[in-house]
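Internal tracking record. Fields below are filled automatically when a chain is submitted to the structure queue. Please do not edit lines marked as system-generated. If the sequence contains nonstandard residues, flag them in the REMARKS field before resubmitting.
Queue: standard
Priority: normal
Entity type: single polypeptide chain
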Amino acid sequence: MSESQPNPGLPPTDAIEILDNRTFDSWFEYPVRVQPHHTDYAGIVWHGTYLTWMEEARVECLRSIGIEFADLVALGCDLPVVELSVRYHRSIQLGLSAIVKTRMTEVTGVRINWDYAIVSPDGAQLYVTAQVTLVALDRERGKIMRQLPVSVKDALAKISALHNN
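SYSTEM-GENERATED OUTPUT FOLLOWS
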């Protein structure tokens, strides 16, 4: 993607200096520490590691409102990623800590959109911003569900209420 056509919805690279802790006040926080297996040969976090951290944060955010991923599987529901957009602002080195911040932005039918920001513990450094779209999938049929299971819809409403207050 060219510089003249930035990805809509993601902060421009020059927004690194503009964002501050208040930007992420109501987001779920998931702390991480960079371990050797998270890095490339130079001791810098490998780009795919960020995706793993984002999924862990999303699963923990859901758990915090009463949705266990194992329960979704038992209901026959899966939430695969169907769209992903990542912007890498700064690298993170071996041994450093970071906070993965996430929030669900909207649910449209069976599509669930999430935003992410990976920041330093003090919020002074912005490392990564991302957006992810999930869909509810019927595991047995391998097809997109027509609607979210009621228990999932009710629990997701809790997240919406948290972010809109």
